[in-house]
Design a protein that fits this description.
This protein has 20 helices and 20 strands. The protein is of the alpha+beta class.
């Protein structure tokens, strides 16, 4: 877009005629000639829209459409462009504009404006402009157009009936009553539980949320259609680091301010309509998971109002203030705040500071200026912080993603696609979603750093002094990065209890992964029931755990022979049998957490946060006490006793509510990486044993 500072019509014309920021001379080489007479001709697919309505600028702005995109310009450029139809010479255009407006132009003035303004915009001649816009981290990137306007227009023509003011009022009232009932009277906890414990419930709810997102996009298209706009394409794209749906509603630039605001809110309005359909589904089926879907859709509505990035709230704020696009107008706006004398002084001291003399925004209204400046002061530091946080956490993201992919692939290996195609497809889909954030984050960081790096290289290559300073700056940055990566955390920063706990958990996970075998005696309790026993574990998928308990526990034997994992309850002569998994990922004991931790060391980090509680001594052994912090918070508290000798968890303790007796399990006489007799894992299930039918609510690994 072309935006030129214009305090009045005459001053604006003079400034455009002498604008040094364009970077073009007044040559007329791009203006076609007929014989010896210069006759400018518009490029193809140019459409003149007219005045721009509801803007935040003091002077009127005008719109021209080129290849479906809109260009904002001053009236002087607009008048020249609409007369450059291939039939008028430069003298004709100058005479026509002078006679019909308050500007006084000559042919040389028209040639200068065409060459320096209209040609770079791709409005004159066959070229499409000088440079291709650079990718921005806040732009919608890597678009995949799913459906075109030919498919969307008929649907939007029907849905636009919902944009009638009477229907809108009824929907808002009904949605308000429904949400008041949900959050003040009924609640959503039952819906969350039903979605979690119903097979396929979470997948069904996610599908509903995705359908709501598609319906949201039709809300934008329908509102635009209702106000007389033309809907563009609809599809999917990469936004920030996640896939998202989008609808091209660029045509609303030519509409009134209220029409643009209605288009911005159309998606959220259709989200509310979708919640009414979910309420109706609940009333019909009495399935609580529909109410859980309402909660997730409401969270999406709240997210859409965030104005920091280009979501609905961003465009709503832009249309309320009358600034077409905050991000693309930041630099031109900030240039208008720098007085011309300061710009000239800086230009003399820094000859390469060309950005100071770039395009400047037309003068805006005072209240718009305050809002825009406040937005910049809040948004820019926040985005810088988020990018810095993204860089700092990138190594952890890569490590966590790799561990998650390994777990999913291990589960995929034990499933027969011919017998369980649905589960196989779900795992492949989950692998795709797990792998997406890493390349998306790298791509976002690249497009964020590309422009500054290009400008830095250009600056450093101009003079030897710049090159020397650039090399020094790069060396300093590399040194800081190396210090951050290689210097131990204890030296780089103070180790808080949570950081120390996280470091201990990482060491425990690494030490557990190195084990080839683990043998120990067991002792523990479940409430008031005490037990003792033995444990022998061997990679990749062998285990023998025998528990001899008092009272209700009885004798429990867990045997994994490399193929199956059998838990035998001797007192009841019952058993549960599962596949062991290629790496023992399905071997676990309800009473001994260390069994699962041995075969799946990543399960040690089952909590997002850990807290270090200090040093403990027990039976002559030294331990570090760590407490996992779960989200949401639980009424019960778990403690890990990590041995300082081998970095393994020797004792786990579960503290009950109100200090009631909890569960604890301790390993004694621990031996690691010793030779283990294979005969220990050979065992025959009694032929009279019966398969145990687990009660509802007991979760077991997937067979």
């Amino acid at each position: 877009m072309l935006q030129q500072n214009n305090s009045s019509a005459c001053e604006n014309a003079a400034r455009e005629l002498r604008d040094p920021s364009s970077g073009h001379n007044s040559s007329r080489e791009s203006i076609p000639k007929v014989g010896s007479v210069e006759i400018p001709r518009l490029a193809p697919n140019i459409r003149f829209i007219g005045k721009m309505n509801g803007v935040g600028f003091r002077d009127q702005q005008w719109l021209v459409q080129r290849d479906g995109k809109f260009i904002q310009m001053t009236e002087l450029l607009y008048r020249i462009a609409e007369r450059a139809n291939g039939q008028h010479t430069l003298d004709d255009i100058a005479e026509s504009v002078t006679s019909s407006t308050e500007w006084l132009l000559e042919a040389a003035d028209v040639a200068n404006l065409i060459q320096s303004k209209l040609v770079p915009l791709g409005l004159i001649g066959s070229q499409r402009g000088e440079t291709k816009p650079e990718s921005s981290p806040v732009d919608v990137n890597i678009r995949f157009r799913t459906v075109g306007a030919r498919f969307i227009e008929p649907i939007a023509s029907v849905f636009q009936l919902l944009c009638n003011s009477v229907i809108v009022s009824a929907v808002l009232v009904a949605a308000g009553i429904g949400h008041w009932w949900l959050y003040r009277i009924h609640g959503v906890s039952q819906g969350v539980q039903e979605a979690i414990y119903t097979p396929g419930g979470v997948l069904f709810v996610i599908t509903l949320v995705l359908l709501a997102a598609v319906f949201h996009e039709f809300g934008h298209a329908s509102a635009l259609k209702y106000h007389g706009g033309k809907v563009g394409s609809m599809g999917m794209a990469l936004y920030i680091i996640y896939p998202a749906f989008y609808t091209d509603v660029t045509d609303n630039y030519r509409l009134s301010r209220w029409a643009r605001i209605s288009t911005d809110l159309g998606g959220i309005y259709f989200h509310l309509i979708f919640t009414l359909m979910l309420f109706a589904a609940y009333l019909t089926s009495h399935r609580e998971l529909f109410l859980f879907a309402v909660l997730l859709v409401d969270l999406e509505i709240i997210q859409q109002f965030i104005p920091v990035i280009r979501l609905d709230g961003y465009w709503l704020m832009a249309d309320l203030t009358g600034i077409p696009d905050f991000f693309s107008q930041m630099a031109p706006f900030l240039r208008t705040l720098v007085p011309s004398r300061i710009r000239a002084a800086l230009q003399k001291k820094m000859p390469y500071a060309a950005d100071l003399e770039g395009t400047r925004l037309p003068e805006v209204k005072t209240w718009v200026k305050v809002v825009f400046l406040s937005y910049i002061l809040i948004t820019v530091p926040l985005l810088v912080y988020l990018v810095a946080l993204m860089v700092i956490t990138l190594p952890q993201l890569i490590t966590t993603t790799w561990d998650g992919l390994q777990a999913q692939v291990a589960m995929l290996r034990v499933i027969d696609p011919r017998k369980d195609l649905f589960t196989t497809l779900l795992l492949l889909l989950q692998i795709g979603f797990l792998a997406l954030p890493v390349p998306a984050t790298l791509y976002l960081l690249w497009i964020t750093a590309k422009s500054p790096l290009t400008k830095f290289v250009n600056w450093a290559s101009r003079t030897p002094r710049n090159a020397f300073a650039g090399v020094g700056g790069i060396a300093a940055c590399c040194g800081i990065a190396a210090a951050f990566i290689f210097v131990p955390p204890s030296i780089r920063r103070a180790e808080t209890p949570s950081r120390k706990a996280d470091r201990l958990i990482q060491q425990t996970e690494a030490a557990t992964k190195k084990l080839s075998s683990l043998t120990a005696d067991l002792e523990g309790s479940v409430g008031e029931d005490h037990f003792t026993g033995t444990m022998v574990l061997k990679r990749p998928n062998f285990a023998r755990v025998q528990i001899n308990g008092t009272k209700g526990l009885g004798t429990i034997l867990l045997i994994a022979d490399g193929k199956t994992a059998t838990t035998y309850f001797a007192n009841n002569n019952q058993y549960v049998q599962l596949k062991a998994g290629q790496s023992g990922e399905f071997i676990q004991s309800t009473l001994v957490d260390q069994v699962e931790q041995f075969f799946r060391p990543e399960s040690i980090r089952g909590s997002p946060y850990f807290e270090y509680l200090g040093h403990r001594t027990s039976d002559g052994n030294e331990f570090d006490l760590v407490e996992p912090k779960y989200t949401p918070a639980s009424d019960e508290t778990v403690y890990y006793f990590i041995s300082r000798a081998d970095q393994l968890i020797h004792r786990t303790m579960l503290k009950g509510v109100n200090d009631k007796p909890g569960n604890w399990t301790a390993l004694k006489n621990v031996q690691v990486n010793n030779s283990v007799d294979p005969a220990l894992f050979t065992w025959t299930l009694p032929h009279t044993a019966k398969s145990l039918q687990m009660p509802a609510g007991v979760q077991l690994p997937v067979k």
